[in-house]
Amino acid sequence: MSSEDDSSGWQLTESDPGVFTELLKTLGVPYIVDDLYSLEPDSLAALQPLHALIFLFKWLPSTEGAPDVNAGRYDSEFSGFFAHQTVNNACATLAVINALGNIPSLPSGPQLRDLLSFTAGMDPQTCGMAITSADWLREAHNALSPPSAISLDGLGLPKTTEDAYHFVVYLPMMGSVYELDGLKPYPVQHGEYDESPEGWLKKAREVIEHRIGTYPTGVLEFSLLALRDDPLPSMQAQLKVLQEVGKESEANDIIVRLSNENAKRERWAFENSLRRHNHMGLVHALLLAFARAGTLDTVKEGAKKVMKTRIERRKGMGMGDMDED
User: Fold this and answer.
1) Residue 5 to residue 267: CA distance in whole angstroms
2) Extended beta strands in the chain, E state
3) Which residue of the set 91, 127, 141, 190 is catalytic?
4) Which of 51, 141, 166, 190 is catalytic?
5) pLDDT tens-place string over residues 68-85
6) Is 166 assigned a catalytic role?
7) Which superkingdom, per the lineage (predicted)?
8) 36-56 pLDDT tens trace
9) Residues 126-151: tens digit of each pLDDT
10) Helix (H/G/I), strand (E/B), else coil: 320
11) In the annotation, is 91 catalytic?
12) Within a 10 A sphere around the Cβ of 6, how many other Cβ atoms?
């Protein structure tokens, strides 16, 4: 969760698979994070092996009581890894750490390995404090936060309260599906899952759909991400075998999938490079150039039209939180 007035040193991050995947790379974990647009079995099966689901939602104070009967129960005897969120803006990275800390035989870099070893056996509050006190982790988190160089303080503009969003994790543990929410006192157990082909994902889908159903009709401010194995090594191995045995048709299918996957990585890398730089100097120089050329008004009118289109699109999605000013 985030707060407008925050001095923790942790900055806001986006719910973006490229951001999470870059963070995993920094942690030395050979996994990736992918967007999930559907909870249907076929969509989930295409991402296997899948280790956890990261769910982003609008945080509402009214939801902060104990879970209701249909939404699981607190497990105060949880024997896995669980850390509380002790500072604002850290929930994205904390969700990732809460997930990784419960994956057996996790391959990771030395810094994450040492951090998980150091926090082993700590109570959730102390564990959360230890994690968010790790300078290297905060720096890795902030490196992927959009720069914020514009301040509207002192302009006499009306104050608006921004919506708060929060990340939680759903994953399998000890035969049950658990929800790890750093703002809750204990992990939430959502019941055992069966050994069907879907496994734990069937139960997780039911839980997430129930949670979405508690929001007003038409609310679409959710995001679901999948923590999964990096598919590139397995696809490359499949391609090699298919080419060796002369199965050109199947090999071509793999080549297309590899091309799409690599194009996605290139897009992530480009977007992350933009996040690492502050472009305000460039924007200022462009505005000056437009003004000197006498085209600033034309550019401004064009920008207004683009913004109007975006506002109409968001309103059509039930997200009427923008205005043309």
Assistant:
1) 33
2) 31-35, 50-58, 73-74, 165-173, 176-180, 188-192, 222-229
3) 91
4) 166
5) 545 789 999 999 999 999
6) yes
7) Eukaryota
8) 888 888 888 888 889 999 998
9) 999 999 999 999 999 988 876 654 44
10) coil
11) yes
12) 14
